[in-house]
């Protein structure tokens, strides 16, 4: 009985507590929305700050601190695995949606799970329960787990931005603000008006002196104009290729690249992450400040999930058509994300780690890779509902679907226990 308790009950209880902690954090976002502490606009602003500022900062610190010339192979394995399972998920989503006649939003729901906020918060919660100590009790184990999940998130986000901008609405969790189109104007007049508008806007918002703002705005605008003219001179095929490649340039990817450069260059790694008496002259102030804002990402983004779910439900509460949860897509997505992918990823990573030399001997790496394909759909489905012109009833159905999907997110505790036991078995063999 004691062996059963030690082998299953204790890890399961710890994983369940960690999952409930994530669910409660979402619930706090719902409470904030219910009491008008956060509204839809503020949630969108917070989400934008999370994606464009906090997540890149987190990537710079975690990837840069953990990555070096010796650990580079670990991250290469994460990159390859992230691309493989995301592409397979997209292909499967397209096939299922087409052959079963499911709604269009089922494809991204199957293709992209929540790879950022939920895994990071889950890791933090697992740290408090102490169940990862059986794999690695070192002080940097949690930071390594975060860095692996962040690299996976960077790949997932980049694929989302590049391959699904029309479905998933680019790099925002919400619909973009449409920019007003200019009427036909004289080119020189349009140029003068645009420069004047940008100068006035920057003079009102920038803390720099106006004399410093005006030349900068004019230089940026003229550079943009020259690049636009060069782009217009290219062939349509070349423009299409450049448009596709441009989608990969997003803040999380830039943060990961900066972190990779800092980590792989020994002098920069020492400067940013060593103690001050060992040459880390930037560690105590610059690195610490970047880490401070990066640590805001996980909890804030999960709170935003709660706000969005609450607002999505309230938006249609007074409507005559309340919608219904589409049971067939819900069942398929739940089974794929919480059952099928763990049944694939855990044995596959176990084989690669125990029977081959493809993966390094880091139990935290095995554990993280086993869990990467698991979890509820990304919240970008709410943006898809707006962009695709879905009716109110379908939007309400999606809102209910996401609410239930995140309500049952503690199901991930079974995958956590499976990944934990498999990693322990590899380490002890």
From TrEMBL:
Disordered as annotated region, ranges: 168-209
Spans through the membrane: 20-38, 75-96, 253-273, 293-309, 330-352, 364-385, 397-420
A GO biological-process term: transmembrane transport
Pfam families membership: Mem_trans
GO cellular component, one term: membrane
Subcellular compartments: Membrane
Basic and acidic residues composition-biased segments: 178-201
Domain of life: Eukaryota
Key word Nucleotide-binding present: no
Keywords: Membrane, Transmembrane, Transmembrane helix
Membrane topology: Multi-pass membrane protein
Protein name: Membrane transporter
Source species: Aureobasidium subglaciale (strain EXF-2481) (Aureobasidium pullulans var. subglaciale)
